[in-house]
Amino acid sequence: MAEGPGSWRDFTVARGDGEVARAAAANLLGAVDAESAGQAQCSGFRGTDPAWEMRGAVVVSEVEEQFLHLAIRKQVSYRKAIAKSSLQHMVAQPNPALALRSDSERQIRSTVDWSETAVYGEHIWFETSVSGDFCYVGEQNCMAKLLQKPLSRRKCAACKIVVHTPCIEQLEKINFRCKPSFRESGSRNIREPTVVRHHWVHRRRQEGKCRQCGKGFQQKFAFHSKEIVAISCSWCKQAYHSKVSCFMLQHIEEPCSLGAHAAVVIPPTWILRVRRPQNPLKSSKKKKRTSFKRKSSKRGAEEGRWKPFVIKPMPAPLMKPLLVFVNPKSGGNQGAKIIQSFMWYLNPRQVFDLGQGGPKEALELYRKVHNLRILACGGDGTVGWILSILDQLRLNPPPPVAILPLGTGNDLARTLNWGGGYTDEPLSKILSHVEDGNIVQLDRWNLHVEPNPDANPDEKDEAAADKLPLDVFNNYFSLGFDARVTLEFHESREANPEKFNSRFRNKMFYAGTAFSDFLTGSSKDLAKHVKLICDGTDLTSKIQDLKPQCLVFLNIPRYCAGTMPWGNPGEHHDFEPQRHDDGCIEVIGFTMTSLAALQVGGHGERLCQCRQVVLTTSKAIPMQVDGEPCKLAASCIHISLRNQANMVQKTKRRNSMPLLNDQQPVPERLRIRVSRISMRDYEALHYDKEKLKEASVPLGIIVVPGDSDLELCRTQIERLQEEGDGAKPKMLSSQKLSPKWCFLDSTTADRFYRIDRAQEHLNYVTEIAQDELYVLDPELVITQTVGTSPAMPDLVDSSAAPTGHHFAFPSSSSSQSSSPAPSDEMPSCLPYSSSSTAGSSGASPGWLSHGFQELHRAGRDLMVRDSSGQTVLHHAVKSGSKDIVKYIIENAPSEILDATEEENGETSLHQAAALRQRTICHYIVEAGASLMKTDLQGDTPKHRAEKANDPNLAAYLENRQHYQMIQREDQETAV
Questions:
Q1: Cα–Cα distance between 659 and 538 in angstroms, integer?
Q2: Residue ranges per domain, the chain?
Q3: Belongs to which family (predicted)?
Q4: Which of 33-47, 330-344, 525-539, 730-744 has the lowest mean pLDDT?
Q5: Class for domain 666-782, per CATH?
């Protein structure tokens, strides 16, 4: 801290330099209010005599003025320090190429710039519709605030700040750059930097807890707060409260650890931008012209090989640097979102979009990095592409490849335990699996094609190809029925791409083509035109006896989106279990019967396991190589082992945190409660873990060994369900699980995530659960149990006395009353508290639910209306009783959801939105109520929530309204 004048030092001796610094920093962070600031300023005068106070009062104003001036000056310098903290240790050298690019040419970049004009600390922008985040430049510099109109927003993938598009230029005024992804190579920089500094960013919303005090950031209801609550690092993700007691000034310049994934992050100190080689100003006159020509040609060759960036890795034996290749065409829009997420977790210069170019240049750039690993995000074709480039570059040793499966199929990913497709597993966990995965080998096979000289010229097909689409396969090579169906689909899609933009239509086309091919029997004569020799043994006669319609040469156990055509040949001693690293290939024949049985666990006809194959065809036959189809002319095909690729196999990971605060790392037995979450609740409340836990329904308690994986837990849960059907059910809920239920990971900080059923054997129960095990049921099956509420079946208090106001509930049976009441009168009463709301407990919800059910069992009609046309659901919404609302929804006809009262034309959802009852709105919406229905004023439920000043509820209703519209369009398309 800079020293002030002598008078200032005299009045601050009692506090000491440390206290002055803390008070000044507190003012800079905005954490000290006027009262505490006044106490701080006057703390040096306490305990003095009145005479000294009178003399001191004369100079108090001067001290305050000097202190204010110092605080303002410190505030500016402090913000500048944060803005520059991550850049000062790697000062950008002046680049002559940057001077050639004018401001008008500077564009808003959405990709990483690898050219020589790359800007140091440049943001990577993508469009966003987020409305809760304020513009990062602040109100003073915000163009939207100045123009008083909404503007488009963009978000940086690397540091996650949000600004209006016109405000991007304002970031330079406040001197805020993105986290640096490279460094400049100084010509005389002997001591090159090896340390990465933090990149501090102010946050108005922050998950997790403060690293200093361990407390949360208290922002549950501060979605539109302008207050900066946290300061976090874009590299290591550490976060502190935005106050001086938590965030110290020394944190600005301390080294950054790069966080939990430091082992796979490529530090910016490894990536150097180099200057273009310059021609020497002096040339030797003594040299002959021929020598000058040779030198010129040599310089020209060097300049041709020059690249703007080079990689200089530091020795780090424990590191496993990662390159991520993402195919944006795989899995719909998943690819683009995954690119943005990986740029947040990693260095943006280790994440590559394959839509912008192939993987070759990136692999060449990083070829000297030790322990390099690759993550291929896409389908099996993307993996094959990368493996082929690795073959071309001849890297030694070749880096192992992990897979993040996108789209459908993904048989290689299933084989290596990565699953059949990416759902919503946290990318942070995927990075941990890539780091910890085992390296295994994958056989790769050559396909050498030659024309068949003995083929009949009369059967020549002009449309047939002379070569296969690929000359190497990793998964399988097949011919016959399956290849014909795939080929017809590809040809039809190329001719009319606009007709194949729906996954549902694609599946229907596949099914129709397969059925048509089955009826016509176009592949039934396959055996007549094929000759097969495996390891010198002629199997042609065996094929002619079998008469298969499809032949498959299989390298991995999985085929056709997860089926296992080789099966388990344990009882057959002629064959060995299939492996992907044994140097053998499996030959399988399929009849139409075995193809149908394949989908229900059957297998094909095992022909042989061999190391070399010679396949001869006498006519043009449809074939496919790893899903790439063609119609190949009569040929002689040689299949032989090419090499073995290194792959990363996903393995089990041990959680370091013991369950239920047990002192032992792994307890011997776990007694854990299992609770079910419906898909409706999961989709609506995934942003709020606590509400999702409240919406869960307990199923029972299981006891398993402490080191159990999820497969064992599944067995116990299914056994628990079977026992629930007995005379003394152990199941706490009347809602049975459907066959498609899956486990949920509840241990992450932000939300719950689904666990792929195919990967349950890779996850320990202690990894995904802490005090309760949650399961997700996408197809909820409800068994009717009279007298209990599905939400809390065993917690009904029947001893409570009815209190409060009443609303009536007439009977549909004449035996219940001496004289039936008209539909607009209400002789029978149901108690409820008029003052209760969605969140209050003025009346016991369990008791009310019990009383309501008793009346319903007595024969009362749930569709009755009062004189104003309001249903019992309208009254239940007004009462705020969630149990009554839930019971009515589950037992009344669906027409009650959109029933309107006469005065304002409001549905029960309109009233719930106006009363800001979020949980009740969720129940009604997920039951199927229309979100597009308007009242007599033309308002939808979303509009009513906006008028009630509940933007979060309005946003939820708007989201579900769009979902309903999409569902309606999909249903119309299907019809």
A1: 59
A2: 6-45+55-84, 310-436, 445-642, 666-782, 805-974
A3: Belongs to the eukaryotic diacylglycerol kinase family.
A4: 33-47
A5: alpha beta
pLDDT over 70 for what percent of the chain?
69
Global pTM value:
0.65
Torsion of CA 545, 549, 553, 556, to 10 degrees: -120
Give the span between the Cα atoms of 89 and 223, in whole angstroms. 35
Which pLDDT does position 25 carry in this prediction? 40
State the pLDDT confidence band at 609, using cuts at 50, 70 and 90: very high
Query: Other CB atoms closer than 10 Å to residue 874's CB: what's the count?
Result: 24
Q: What is the token pair recorded at 840?
A: 């209050």
Q: Mind spelling out the 3-state secondary structure of 375-405?
A: EEEECHHHHHHHHHHHHHHCCCCCCCEEEEE
pLDDT at 801 over 70: no
Mapped onto helix, strand or coil, the DSSP state of residue 927 is coil
Whether 929 and 900 have beta carbons less than 8 Å apart is answered as no
Residue 66 pLDDT: 53
Angle between the 882-891 and 872-879 helix axes, to the nearest 10 degrees? 160
DSSP 261: T
Reported as a single tens digit per residue, the pLDDT across 183-227 is 987 644 545 567 899 999 999 888 888 999 988 886 554 445 678
The candidate with the shortest Cα–Cα distance to 195, out of 245, 156, 253, 124, is 253
Among the listed ranges 396-400, 500-504, 549-553, 578-582, which one has the minimum average pLDDT value?
A: 500-504
Are the folds of 310-436 and 805-974 the same? no
- Which residue from 900, 743, 919 is spatially nearest to 836, judged by alpha carbons? 919
Rounded-to-integer distance, Cα 251 and Cα 255, Å = 8
3-state SS track over 697-764: EEEEEEEEECCCEHHHHHHHHHHHHHHCCCCCCCCCCCEECCCCCEEEECCCCCCCEECCHHHHHHCE
Q: Is 145 exposed, middle or buried (0-12, 13-18, 19+ CB in 10 A)?
A: middle
Whether pLDDT at 277 is above 50? yes
Q: Cα(862)–Cα(744) distance, rounded to whole angstroms?
A: 36
Check whether 823 has a pLDDT greater than 50.
Answer: no
Tell me the CATH number of domain 805-974, given options 1.25.40.20, 2.60.40.1120, 1.10.10.10, 3.30.300.180: 1.25.40.20
Closest CA to 255 of 89, 25, 122, 83: 89
Mean pLDDT of 52-77: 46
Q: Residue 682 is encoded by which pair of tokens? A: 């999961």
Could you tell me how many residues make up the chain? 975
Q: Which amino acid is at 893?
A: P
Element counts in the chain: helices (H) and strands (E): 28, 34
Q: How far apart are CA 598 and CA 567, in angstroms?
A: 10
User: What integer is the mean pLDDT of 794-808?
Assistant: 35
Quick one: which of 736, 737, 743 has its CA closest to 761?
Answer: 743
- Give residues with Cβ within 8 angstroms of 791, minimum separation 6: 697, 882, 883, 886
What is the mean pLDDT of the segment spanning 145-151? 84
Q: Could you read off the pLDDT of 371-389 as tens digits, one per residue?
A: 999 999 998 889 999 999 9
Tell me the CATH number of domain 310-436, given options 1.20.1250, 3.30.43, 3.40.50, 2.40.128. Answer: 3.40.50
Which of 491, 483, 489 has its CA nearest to residue 509? 489
CA 657 → CA 53, 262, 690, 751, 855, distances in Å? 58, 20, 21, 18, 49
User: What average pLDDT is seen over the chain?
Assistant: 75
Tokens of 7: 């008078």
Q: How confident is the model at residue 509 (pLDDT cuts 50, 70, 90)?
A: low
Residue 540 has pLDDT above 90, yes or no: yes
